Amino acid sequence: MNYRHAFHAGNFADVVKHALFCRLVRYLQRKDGAIRIYDTHAGPGLYDLAGEAATRTMEHAAGISALASAGERIREHPLFRDYWSIVAAEFSERRYPGSPLIARQLLRPQDRLSAYELHPEDAAQLKALFAGDPAVKAIALDGWLALGAHVPPKEKRGLVLVDPPFEKPGEVDDIGDALEKALARWRGGVFAVWYPVKRAAMVEALKERLRALAPGDLVVAEFLREPPTPAETLVGSGLAVVNPPYVFAEEAEAILSLLAPVLGRGNRATTTVKEWPGKAS
Ligand code: SAM
Asked: Is 163 tagged catalytic?
C-alpha cells in the first residue's frame, strides 16, 4: 500500500467530491429517521496542509486554497454552505478535513458513521481522531470486506462513500464485485463511488459495470479541470451515485458549474452530469 492521501488532501478532486458528498448526506437527513454513513476508504480523517506531504505537492493550492480565495458568492452559496463551514474551521488552522471528519460534522444526534481504513498509520490516526466518540466506529479493516458484510445498517437508510486509491489494476472489478454484494444485501442504499479521470478506458469500464448492476437510477457527475491529455495524467474526477436522491443531478450540475471557474485550469474546465434510469424504474 503506497498510496497516502496526505499528498493530495484538499486538491481540486477533494473539493468536488466533498462538496457533492455533503449534499447527499443532507438530502438523506430531510427525514428525521436516523441514517448510517459508511466510509469504506476513509484515510486518516484530518490533514496538515503545512506538513511535509502537503507542501511537497502543494495540490491544495489549486483546490481548497483556491476556493478559500474565491468570492463569498460561491463559498456562501446554499449548496456549499455546509461544506464550506466545516472546511473553513480547519482551513483557518492550515488543516483540511477528510471525508470521515466531514461526515462526522454532518451527523445529527441520531446518525452514525462507520469508517474503514487499511493502512496501519492512517488507521491509527483515524482511530485516535474519533477515540471516545460514540457516534463513530473507526475500524482498521479492508473496506471491500466491510462493504460486503456490514450492510445493511440497523438504521436502514444511509449512504456509502467508496473512495479507493486506484493504485493497482483490477480496481474496477473490486468496486463492481463489492457493490454487487452490497446491493444484494441493501438494495435501497445510496452508494457514491469516486473515480479519477485519467485513463479513458478505465472510466468507461467502471461506468459500464455500475450501469449493469444499478437497480435504481445511476447519476454520474464529472469535473474535468482541463481537457484529457495523451499522457493520461489526472485531469478530473467523477462521482458515480447509485440510487441517487432525485435532486442530486440538478444540484451536482449547479455545484460543478460554480466550481468550474475556481478550479479549472486557464478557463478550460468542463463539467457533465449524466443520468441513467435504472432497470427497476
Ligand atoms: N476518503 C478519503 C477522503 O475523502 O478524505 C480519502 C481516501 S484515499 C483516496 C484512499 C484510502 O484508502 C487511503 O487512505 C488508503 O490507505 C485506503 N485503502 C486502500 N486500500 C484499502 C482497503 N482495501 N480498505 C480500506 N482502506 C483502503
From this structure: yes
- Is 281 within a domain? no
The total of structural domains in the chain comes to: 1
CATH of the domain at 176: 3.40.50.150
Q: How far apart are CA 86 and CA 24, in angstroms?
A: 15
ipTM: 0.99
Which whole-number Å values give the CA distances from 244 to 71, 162, 193, in the listed order? 30, 14, 11
- Supply the range of the domain harboring residue 213: 5-276
pTM greater than 0.95 = yes
Per-residue model confidence as pLDDT tens digits over 244-255: 999 999 999 999
Atom of ligand 1 nearest to the CA of 143: 24
Residue of the CA atom closest to atom 4 of ligand 1: 99
Write down the catalytic residue from 163, 174, 177, 217.
163
Tell me whether the omega of the peptide bond preceding residue 152 falls within 30 degrees of 0, making it cis. Answer: yes
Does 170 map to a domain? Answer: yes
